Amino acid sequence: MSAAEPLLRLAVGVVIERRAAKSAWADFVWRPSAVLAGEPDAAPWTLLEAQADRTTFYAGAGEVALYRTDTAYYRDNLATGEPMLWAVLRPTGGDPPFTVVAVTADPNEGEAFATVGTDLVEALPMPASIRDAVEAFVAEHHIERAFAKRKRDRADPEALARRARVKDSS
Fold first, then answer.
1. pLDDT of 43-60, one tens digit each?
2. How many structural domains compose the chain?
C-alpha cells in the first residue's frame, strides 16, 4: 500500500459465508465469498441467504484504492485472464464477528495481508465493471520502467583486514 493518496477509489461491497465446521474445535468456518461492484443499499451484516449448512451475509462496504505507482501490479493481475480482488476481513472478537479491512487489486498487497495470520484473506473474482475501471486506470497511468541491475562495489581487502588494537595511553 502506498503512502500517497490514491488517484481513484472504487466502492465495493463484500459478501461473507458461514459454513458448519467439520471440527471438534470450531462451530463455523467463515470465508469471504464475493466482492460486489458498488456499495449495496443494505446494512452491514444483512442476511442474504440461509441454507441448512451455509449462511451468506453482506459483511460491509470497502473500497479498491488505485495508485499510479502500483499499475504494474494491476497490469499483472489483469494479464492472468481471471483478475482477482483480495478481500480482507479482521475478527472483531464480538458481534459482528468480522469487519472489512481492505479490498485490493494488487496481488502483492493481498499476499502481505495473508501473512498477518488472524485476518480472513480471500482472492475473489473481480467484477466486470471493476475490471474495466482498473484496465482504464492502467492504460492512463502506467509507465513502463526498465529494470536496472545494480552493480556491487568491489570489496576492499584492506577494510576487511584485522586492525591492531590501539593501546590506551593513560
1. 999 999 999 889 999 999
2. 1
